[in-house]
Write a structure and sequence with these properties.
Cathepsin D, subunit A, domain 1, 6-stranded mixed beta barrel, 3-stranded antiparallel β-sheet, 12 strands, globular
């Protein structure tokens, strides 16, 4: 089953995808530079099956390596396709404080920005992104 998703990005802004998690209409950033899928910790604790990591998680990135408080989460995320239908998809990842991301994206959408989908999720669904058409195709 192939689904085409219309992305919500504006010029010179990150790729945004409208989703529904725990019955809440919201937005996630589609980040091809992020490996993991991340949800805001307070949102994940309220709307997903979320379990605290006792030892924290290690985050390694360009110029950054640290251990931070995190939780693991698992939920169903509904994705709005270009035909107006909602499609349920599994979403797993880590939950951390994303206040900086939420603040940075505040002007881009009226819906709350609650997370980031990274390359592991994109690869799992064999995503193909067409930046010019602002669409993503999932298999």
């Amino acid at each position: 089953m192939i689904k085409k998703i219309k992305l919500l990005n504006k010029k010179d802004a990150p790729l945004l995808m409208r989703v529904r998690i725990g019955g809440v209409d919201c937005v996630v950033v589609v980040d091809t530079g992020a490996n993991y899928t991340v949800l805001d910790r307070s949102f994940a604790k309220k709307y997903t099956a979320c379990e605290d990591n006792e030892d924290g998680s290690e985050m390694i990135g360009v110029g950054y390596s640290d251990t931070f408080d995190s939780s693991d989460f698992c939920c169903m995320m509904e994705v709005l396709d270009s035909d107006g239908g909602w499609n349920a998809m599994l979403l797993e990842g880590i939950a951390v404080d994303l206040n900086d991301l939420k603040q940075a994206c505040k002007e881009l959408t009226d819906l709350p920005v609650v997370g980031i989908v990274g390359t592991m999720w994109l690869d799992y669904w064999r995503a193909r992104i067409d930046v010019r058409k602002k669409t993503m195709t999932l298999e």
